[in-house]
Amino acid sequence: MNRMTLDLWVGIFVAIGLAALLFLALKVGNLASASSGETYVLKASFDNIGGLKVRAPVKSAGVVVGRVSNISLDLERYEAVVTMNIGNQYQFPRDTFAKIRTSGLLGEQYIGLAVGGDEQMYKPGDSVKKTESAMVLEDLVGQFLFSKASEGNDKASGN
Fold it and tell me: pTM here?
């Protein structure tokens, strides 16, 4: 094998390796999974979205049924408005809950749809009325410490 042929093969393998790395980077960043199917829009308002990001998954029963497409602030009610693109093959009843969940203890946040039993389904552009905001770890620790401090004060005062 002469030097030019060897250089050609090395170049081909390097190009394949770079393409594989690019593919993996896009997969990890949720950018390669652009939905090719038709979708419809649902919106939901939350008091606190925690670390929810655009392109976060929307799941129902653990199955990804859509993605978060936009997050904005409603300046009248000071709530976060989350816009979701849901696959057309998935229809949800009007009493479905939208809850912000976390994968694992410190994992990514996603929206979980807890399906209700209503016979009427959401239509494109509708807003999910029943929502549950994100649990913020700092708030939970603060509440725990505050309750422990108040217990200590109660014992010290004799109550």
Answer: 0.66
